[in-house]
């Protein structure tokens, strides 16, 4: 079973998380999600356990438990259906393609560069 663990302290290590779950049974893998640029923990991760009964017991007992002063969230990780995944190139502003910082070129004409850059 794949288990989501949230509200983790930023200082917790994967070995510490593994140890917490191994108290309930065999742990296949532990992964704390980190920011790809800073390497800092994002405060959540995933634990995989082979035995579903042991995994469920870990979820029941660790959900809401305090780890390094923080109450953690532990539940079964459900994969998102493919249709619900967001694309990173969606323009969520509804077609406004002028960009930020003043809305593009204030001199008229096309928007290929130059223009009013406001001292940037």
UniProtKB/TrEMBL annotation:
UniProt-recorded Gene Ontology molecular function terms: RNA binding
Keyword RNA-binding included in the entry's annotation: yes
Biased composition (Basic and acidic residues): 77-87
InterPro entries, sorted: Nucleotide-bd_a/b_plait_sf, RBD_domain_sf, RRM2_NsCP33-like, RRM_dom, SLIRP/GR-RBP-like
Region span, Disordered: 70-120
RRM domain segment(s): 1-79
Superkingdom in the source lineage: Bacteria
Compositional bias (Gly residues): 97-120
Pfam families: RRM_1
Key words of the record: RNA-binding
Identification of the protein by name: RNA-binding protein
Source organism: Flavobacterium hiemivividum
């Amino acid at each position: 079973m794949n288990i989501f663990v949230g509200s983790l302290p930023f200082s917790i290590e994967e070995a510490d998380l593994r140890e917490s779950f191994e108290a309930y049974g065999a742990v296949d893998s532990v992964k704390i999600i980190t920011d790809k640029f800073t390497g800092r923990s994002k405060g959540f991760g995933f634990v995989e356990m082979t035995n579903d009964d042991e995994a469920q017991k870990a979820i029941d007992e660790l959900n809401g438990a305090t780890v390094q002063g923080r109450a953690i969230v532990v539940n079964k990780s459900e994969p998102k259906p493919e249709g619900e995944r967001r694309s990173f190139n969606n323009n969520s502003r509804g077609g406004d393609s002028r960009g930020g910082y003043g809305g593009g070129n204030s001199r008229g004409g096309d928007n290929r560069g130059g223009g009013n850059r406001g001292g940037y």
